[in-house]
Amino acid sequence: MRNAFIALVVLVSLSVAGAASAGAIFLTGHDPDFHAFVGGNAAGAQNINNAAIDFILDSAFNPFTGNTTMDFLFVESFISPPGGHVNGVNGIVASGYASGTDFEHHDASTLDAELDLLGTKYAGIVVASDFGGVLTQDELDILNARSADIIAFLNAGGGLYAMAESNSQAALTPDGGHFGFLPFIVTSAQLNQSEIGYTVTPFGASLGLSNSDINNNASHNIFSGTPLGLSIVDVDALGNTMSLAGRPTNIPNVPEPSSLALLVGALAGLCGMRRRRS
């Protein structure tokens, strides 16, 4: 009975705390999947994509890089883009990545199965914007439902890059849950604005970005706080955080409330059995 009690304590601890390792995350309120293909500063948007993808796939930190079939899984709908949107995959290709060689593009119809292949087929995940790319609620809901698996992948050293989520323009994500696959993100707020007077931080500059990369297009959400020690990459003219990146350790992965209640109940039951037998 004592061994069973200890095993359950360990199980609860692992479920709540997660594993300790480095996972690379890059989140941005820009939509460089759109602007790398169309817009006033395509070269700057392409540089954002390159810096973000290089960061999440850096083989010095990502143990899957070079050991998978594809570098990354690109998540976006295949719908015909509504006005003000494009298929963001075009911006990924314009940034120098080849579909079928560097990445595979999957929508909600196949996404769930592909997420089972993180770490074997894919070293990273790249999530399109919902404006001006065409990430829809269907893809976002699947990502959010698989949050525990995505966090486990990050804790094992995998990488994730996600672009603006705001439900703007054609309102492709009306049920919300923006960036919900990373539940530790404090706040993501819709803010559509032209990129004028934006500034790269010293950390952003260390990733290879410059002020010329983050101006003269548009952006669609901002972030609050620096959760898990993520660093600010760039800010808008008012000092709002536009992008966050970092390699946090031990990303928490709290189980569903029902699962946690079951584990706590089991612990209480075992404690009661021990008291009755003493």
Task: Describe this structure in a few short sentences.
With 278 residues, the protein is an alpha/beta fold.
Protein topology:
Layout: H1 2-17, E1 24-28, H2 32-35, H3 42-57, E2 70-75, H4 89-94, E3 103-106, H5 108-115, E4 122-127, H6 137-145, H7 147-155, E5 159-162, E6 187-194, E7 199-200, H8 202-206, E8 218-224, E9 231-235, E10 241-246, H9 257-277
Parallel strand pairs: 1-5, 2-3, 2-4, 4-5
Antiparallel strand pairs: 1-10, 6-8, 7-9, 9-10
Helix pairs in contact: 1-9
Q: Kindly name the structural category.
A: alpha/beta
Query: How much beta, percentage-wise?
Result: 15-25%
The biggest sheet amounts to:
8 strands, mixed
Helical fraction equals: 25-40%
Number of separate helices = 9
Q: Over the alpha carbons, how many angstroms does the gyration radius reach?
A: 20 Å
Q: Give the mean pLDDT.
A: 87
Q: Determine the N-to-C terminus distance.
A: 12 Å
Low-pLDDT residue spans: 1-21, 255-278
Q: What is the general shape?
A: globular
- Compute the number of structural domains: 2
In what order do the strands lie side by side in the largest sheet?
3-2-4-5-1-10-9-7
Counted beta strands: 10
- What is the string of SSEs from the N terminus onward? HEHHEHEHEHHEEEHEEEH
What do you see in this structure?
This protein starts with a helix and ends with a helix. The chain is globular and about 40 Å long. α1 runs antiparallel to α9 (257-277). The protein has an eight-stranded mixed sheet with strand order 3-2-4-5-1-10-9-7. The chain has a two-stranded antiparallel ribbon with strand order 6-8. The chain is α/β, with parallel strands linked by helices and 278 residues long. It has nine helices and ten strands. It folds into two domains: 1-18 and 260-278, no CATH class; 20-252, no CATH class. The chain has helices spanning 2-17, 32-35, 42-57, 89-94, 108-115, 137-145, 147-155, 202-206, 257-277; strands at residues 24-28, 70-75, 103-106, 122-127, 159-162, 187-194, 199-200, 218-224, 231-235, 241-246. Mean pLDDT is 87; it is low at 1-21 and 255-278.
